[in-house]
User: Which sequence fits this backbone?
């Protein structure tokens, strides 16, 4: 299976904007349009397209943000697979790819994400990958999860 994590450019922006979140997931994540607008106003956000065999099947947005204890945190801020490509194992596959990608790019010790506590499917997925709740809430009231990573495990 040929897959890629691609930067979003003028050439692929329209296919990224065409990605759709399933109806029952609408309350859990912003649309790609909202995400790209946010990334334009805040350069710390880096949006990427998730591709399988040259077809856009998902979206993610990550970035490095300062924390109140004067450290920097690597956040996997948005992540979804288009509703047409769900239930094919791509959610698990690309989550592993994104973890590898972020560790390689930032040599980070931890990856953070946040999730609404009623988003059971996402929480189960993140727990399978070693993310645990750290008893923090983000500024939208979502619960923060963190995964400890060891860069030497991801070459």
Assistant:
């Amino acid at each position: 299976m040929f897959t890629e994590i691609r930067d979003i450019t003028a050439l692929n922006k329209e296919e990224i904007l065409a990605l759709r979140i399933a109806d029952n997931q609408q309350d859990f994540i912003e649309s790609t349009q909202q995400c790209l607008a946010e990334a334009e106003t805040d350069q710390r956000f880096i949006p990427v397209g998730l591709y399988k065999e040259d077809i856009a099947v998902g979206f993610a947005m990550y970035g490095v943000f300062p924390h109140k204890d004067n450290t920097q945190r690597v956040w996997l801020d948005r992540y979804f697979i288009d509703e047409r490509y769900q239930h094919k194992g791509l959610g698990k596959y690309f989550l592993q790819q994104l973890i590898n990608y972020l560790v390689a790019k930032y040599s980070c010790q931890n990856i953070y994400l946040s999730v609404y506590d009623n988003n059971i499917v996402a929480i189960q997925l993140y727990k399978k990958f070693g993310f645990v709740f750290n008893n923090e809430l983000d500024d939208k009231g979502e619960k923060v999860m963190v995964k400890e990573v060891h860069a030497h495990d991801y070459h």
